[in-house]
Amino acid sequence: MQLTAIALWLNTAFAGFDESVAVAVHRLYELAPGFFTPFLTLITYMGKGGAFLILLSIAMMLFRPTRRYGTTMLLCLAIGALITNLTVKPLVARPRPYSWDGSVYQRIWIEMGRHTESDKSFPSGHMTAAMAASAAVFQRGNRKYSWTAFIFAFLMGLSRIYLGVHYTTDVLGGVITGGIGGILGYRLSNRIPEWFFQGDARNLLPGYRQTGRHQSAKSAGTRQIVIDGENFSDLRGFYAEISKALGAGDDPVRNMDALNDRLRGGFADNDAGALEIVWKNAEKSRGDLGYEATAAHYERRLDKVPEANREKLEQRIRNAREGRGQTLFDTLCGILRGREEDGRTLTLR
User: Fold this and answer.
1) CATH at residue 249
2) Rounded to whole angstroms, how far apart are CA atoms 32 and 24?
3) Residue pair 209/215 in contact by the 8 Å Cβ criterion
4) In this structure, are residues 166 and 83 in contact, taking their beta carbons and an 8 Å threshold?
5) Could you list the residue range(s) of the whole structural domain that residue 52 is in?
């Protein structure tokens, strides 16, 4: 069988590694075939052709609370598939491990039920899709919990080795291509206009947004800006994020007084009748700008305040150290939430 240079290198350089992992994974079959075989077969079918994950992402797009997740996932899947199926697989053209007569892979493959695949082996398309989808959920969600999405990706890779249809290096290649697709898809999703995520599901239909009753905030006389807690983790980062969102240009917001003045002064040159600020990933910001950050912020200011205000600032530090009083997050929300200036309304969501 004629191999490309890359396929030959993979088969030679990683021969021992691929075979040892395949034999180790096959031990699961020997230990509990009645459990692992149906379970991992189900996992592998969830990645077949990407159909399940594509349908899942489309279903999530129909509902406003999950639309951002579904959109991100669909973009990640599409980019991962383009990288794998249109670029890397044809370039490498690595045969499936079970195609080698008499090999340990073929023996495992026969024992597992001869799951035949039609395309080339490197990288694993199933793993690419699972990794891209998992990366989308991880990046879009609260990372304290969203890392669990990678459990699905791990199980997908395990199932492909278990069934004897992929080398371990194929799976690792899918981790890379899926990870790239996940990063690019997430970044691309952040460029989608906010009305797409916040409107009625019918907004997704061509022409409806312009003629239907669910119009974008801007067309209804409201300007909407978005700040994302994933883009910053401290007060300085918040100022940079809000300055960018407001279009501050050469006059960025540098402190709370400046932010208050800018919003009072016509909502940063906003011509609309109202300004709505959407704070994404606010729970992350609540933690980043919580009591610990609040105490540290006031301690840095302690030597700069007049003596008359020093006692008051020290009390704020004690309160923050004891988990009492307003945090920086609370104070910022107070500045951004609910006010009217010169007939204009400011709201925070």
Assistant:
1) 3.30.370.10
2) 14
3) yes
4) no
5) 5-189
Yes or no: say if 123 and 84 are a contact pair by the CB < 8 Å rule. yes
Inside any domain, residue 210: no
Sheet bearing 344-348, strands edge to edge: 222-228, 274-280, 344-348, 339-341
Among residues 92, 86, 100, 117, which one has the least CA distance to residue 8? 92
> What does the angle CA 336 – CA 288 – CA 280 come to, to the nearest 5 degrees?
50
Alpha-carbon gap, residue 76 to 187, rounded angstroms: 9
What's this model's pTM, rounded to 2 decimal places? Answer: 0.63
Q: CA–CA separation, 144 vs 162, rounded Å?
A: 30
We report the CATH number of the domain holding residue 122 as 1.10.606.20
Task: Please tell me whether residue 199 adopts helix, strand or coil conformation.
Answer: coil
CB neighbours (10 Å) of residue 193? 14
Structurally, the chain folds into a number of domains equal to 2
User: Which among 237, 215, 219 is positioned nearest to 227, based on CA atoms?
Assistant: 237
Position 268 scores a pLDDT of 47
**Residue 145 belongs to a domain:** yes
Q: What is the pLDDT of residues 55-112, one digit of tens each?
A: 999 999 998 888 889 999 999 999 999 999 999 999 999 999 999 988 999 999 999 9
Classified as helix, coil or strand, 338 is coil
